[in-house]
Amino acid sequence: MLRQLAFALMLGGGLALAPHVIAQTSLDQATQPTEEPSILPAGEGQEEVFYACTACHSTAIIRRSRFSEARWDELMTWMTEVHGMAPLEGDERRLIVTYLAQHFGPAQTRPGARNPFLN
Ligand code: HEC
């Protein structure tokens, strides 16, 4: 009898604790570590790209991409027309597209980047 009671208390205690543990780690914290501009390669346009692009998504989607300058330019139009990004024009557009093509161009391996499938 005493043993059953102890077991029930343990079980109850465990369940009561669970919501507390869940509340402590919000899904956001667990899945979206805070990014800073330095996550992008240093260079002219780094901050502009960071702040213009992270309003809607993290930089991961940019960092995994490899596009030509023309394709990056088209993508800026697509982002505005389809996804509602504020139109990028003039010098700012040139700065951003040049930066993207320079650092995330086709067949480019950034310094220090390693192919995980070859290691
Ligand atoms: C207004 C919101 C918004 C802003 C601002 C924005 N994007 Fe996007 N972007 C999106 C959405 C929505 C998608 C589609 C996500 C998906 O398909 O999962 C996307 C997708 C992408 C993709 C993937 C395209 C593909 O075909 O693989 C790239 C690359 C990208 N964005 C780059 C950028 C860059 C660079 C900037 C800054 C100049 C930017 N985005 C700013 C909303 C935005």
From TrEMBL:
What keywords were assigned to this record? Signal
Question: Which Gene3D superfamilies does the record cross-reference, listed alphabetically?
Answer: Cytochrome c-like domain
Leader sequence segment: 1-23
Molecular function (GO) terms listed?
Answer: electron transfer activity; heme binding
User: In its UniProt entry, what is this protein called?
Assistant: Aldehyde dehydrogenase
